[in-house]
Amino acid sequence: MLEITQLTKAFGPNKAVDNITLSVPQGQMVGVIGRSGAGKSTLLRMVNRLAEPTDGKILFGGREVTALRGRALHAWRAECAMVFQQFNLVGRMSVINNVLMGRIFHHGFATAMLQIFGPEERALAIRALDRLGMAHTALQRAETLSGGQMQRVAIARALVQQPKLMLADEPIASLDPLNAKVVMDALRTINREDGITVLANLHTLDTARTYCDRIVGLMEGRVVFDGTPDQLTDRQAREIYGAEADDAFSEGVTSTALRPAQPVRALEGAE
């Protein structure tokens, strides 16, 4: 279980995240919604320890994440995979080598840069790509892919970390509706089949309602809604999104996107 207690992140007098407390059971898929600047990305970055909290605690499986340092922190970032909006792939590198960068936590920077990976790890990377329907691109340079394909490669890279928790920060914000559907289908299937907890920052309401077991709404760094998709009324959602409500309601992946676009198989070795 992920437990967040009175978590705060202040930048001078301003609080990007303000006294948030949440408990997320293992295997749940949670959509975090809110307007731009509501604190969604800052919250995820603190869970991954890419940003340091000003106050509060984060625990996972009873271990205090906010107290980790050095090698223990390094290990946590392997267990807590992050998928970013901008993909963060190396364009000139092959797809499979981009995926293998997810194993850097299990080696070291020098080994990863020299691309010294064993056959078992390469097989793991191919299986991850196959789950995302991307195995045929393994030897292509990443820069030849479309945006939707790049995001699927980024998810495969996260999978080879063999994480227990996956964070997705606006994973479909820069994608067209068809590619957004494929990416969200993949994230939910990973959640359901592997039992990996997923926290996803999502701008559109339909996407959150379609894919998530639970929705957490943020306003000005505070939790103002925490419940199931059915419990979130349109009125509450419009209050959460404010001036961005029309965009949040008019775009997104709708309830037609309930079945994975690709057959997805369990990844061997995933925890």
TrEMBL record:
Pfam families: ABC_tran. InterPro entries: AAA+_ATPase, ABC_transporter-like_ATP-bd, ABC_transporter-like_CS, ABC_transpr_PhnC, MetN_ABC_transporter-like, P-loop_NTPase. Residues 2-245 form the ABC transporter domain. The keyword Cytoplasm does not apply. Keywords: ATP-binding, Cell membrane, Membrane, Nucleotide-binding, Translocase, Transport. The keyword Transmembrane does not apply. It comes from the Bacteria. CDD domains: ABC_PhnC_transporter (cd03256). One of its GO terms (molecular function) is ATP binding. This is Phosphonate ABC transporter ATP-binding protein.
